Amino acid sequence: MLTVNHLTKSYDGEKMSLTDVSFSVRPGEVTVIIGPSGAGKTTILRSINQLIRDDDGEILFDDTDMRQLNRRQLRQARCRIGMIFQNYNLIEPLTAIENVLHGCLGTKSNLAGIFSMYRNREKEEALQLLQKVGLGEFAYQQCRNLSGGQKQRVGIARALMQRPKIILCDEPIASLDPKSTVTVMDILRDLAVNDGISVLINLHQVDIARKYADHVIGINNGQVVFDNRAKLLSDVAIANIYQKNVNTEGSLVHEF
Ligand SMILES: Nc1ncnc2c1ncn2[C@@H]1O[C@H](COP(=O)(O)OP(=O)(O)O)[C@@H](O)[C@H]1O
Ligand SMILES: [Mg+2]
């Protein structure tokens, strides 16, 4: 469904931020990327939808290399890739439902991106998605009045409005309290298990990865040092992922 092959990236042409990163993401699974700060997690997610251009490698999304698409094709492919951010990226003065409706902007001209011009069918769908994430009664509240956990759930509803095949989440719970963390992670897991969406999440909380992931990818210093089922994420593997300057020789676990 999504396969990353030999991804390589340097921002400055000297220091490597990603070196030969390869992994696959399966539909209906939660895949979590863990690793220390600066390991390259965000760079991987932003390369997938080509928000940044990687230097080398292949990103196969439904067997098409994202790197080879022209602008129009890339826009279409991005419509099938939902994004969830640590800081929500909502338009705070707008209501929850207006933010969710922005999720289908990719399929419209800019002019149509005004609330009154959305079709009733789209407004109904946006409301249903807010209900799905438990926020039906907050649909007409301005986002700036919502809690962090509620904002992130609006972010999820907005991503779902695109009818994504995959959702990429960059530290989605980093700003949330423990209770909101559980709510948001439960929703993301439900999207994988019940809706068959691939969910790829960058996290630094190992305990959350253990609880929610089917598949874990460990990144250290821009390299994949663990790629396996979550139940095989041992304490030794975690120590390896989080140690400084891992030498990947002999430490890469790559079996399914
Ligand atoms: N825009 C940028 N310009 C230059 N270097 C960057 C940029 N973004 C990230 N980096 C570098 O790339 C490496 C990986 O960063 P990042 O992907 O943000 O890691 P993570 O998300 O795991 O914390 C780090 O060394 C970071 O300093
Ligand atoms: Mg990051």
Automatic annotation (TrEMBL):
Give one GO term, molecular function aspect. ATP hydrolysis activity
Q: Which is a Gene Ontology cellular component entry for this protein?
A: membrane
SUPFAM superfamilies given for it? P-loop containing nucleoside triphosphate hydrolases
Q: Which UniProt keywords apply?
A: ATP-binding, Cell membrane, Membrane, Nucleotide-binding, Phosphonate transport, Translocase, Transport
- For the keyword Transmembrane, the answer is no
Q: Which residues form a coiled coil?
A: none
Which Gene3D superfamilies does the entry link to? P-loop containing nucleotide triphosphate hydrolases (3.40.50.300)
Q: Which Pfam families match?
A: ABC_tran
What is the protein name for this chain?
Phosphonate ABC transporter ATP-binding protein
Name its species: Secundilactobacillus pentosiphilus
The beginning of the lineage is: Bacteria, Bacillati, Bacillota, Bacilli, Lactobacillales
